[in-house]
Give the backbone structure.
Amino acid sequence: MKDADCIGFLQWALPRLGLRWAGFRRVRSQVRKRLGRRIAALGLKDLSDYRALLETDVAEWSQLNGLCRISVSRFYRDQRVWSLLECELLPRLAAQALARGEDRLRIWSAGCASGEEPYTLALMFALGGAPMSCEPEIVATDADPHLLGRARRACYPPTSLRELPKTWRAAFEPSEDELCLRQSYRTSVRFLEQDIRRALPDGGFDLVLCRNLVFTYFEASLQVAMARRLAEALLPGGLLVLGSHESLPEPVPELVQERPWLYRRELG
């Protein structure tokens, strides 16, 4: 499959899935390989045949949607974000919760893939250097049942842990060629199979992490709609964390931008 053919196909297909070509430019080789395997499995000749199939078989679009899910994830991805969360943002949210008479923080990890992000949060509460005065209640969602199966199993190649603080690695135990998170560190995380374009978990969150998903891969009008829905999912004073190179496509009245990738829902 030629790269030019793949580009042309994606530019045609992605908008029909609510996705945008710009977000896939750097990761198209991953999608191209998946498309090649799917075309071979269907016994088709090339992308032209696959496009013809899509134009007559509505059910195949859900298969294509799965092929276009990008799941690049590892523990403690983007250290500066996690350091700020540990030292400043989570203590702030905990103080707000205690002022409301609550001793738990409700957190949502959107597009959690195989679980590295929500488990990093769980480890931060259990092993981080900053004292946490609240317990975490973490909801982690993803549309891919295969990735969620891996998340629930909680076993990872050593390379997934390379950015994790060394003192936290004792939370894992070896199992053949993988490292598995000990059960005691998993209890605060609950996984749900949800496509964020169609469903969100029940709101009232102190913290929402929506990194490298909506505001990278979704088309513009859907980004705007999702930004409003994410704002509604936050408690007053709650925080929305995006990917370090992301920002909202336009202002949302309820949200105050604290950093390019960090937003706070107003208390009013």
Residues 79-99 form the longest helix (21 residues).
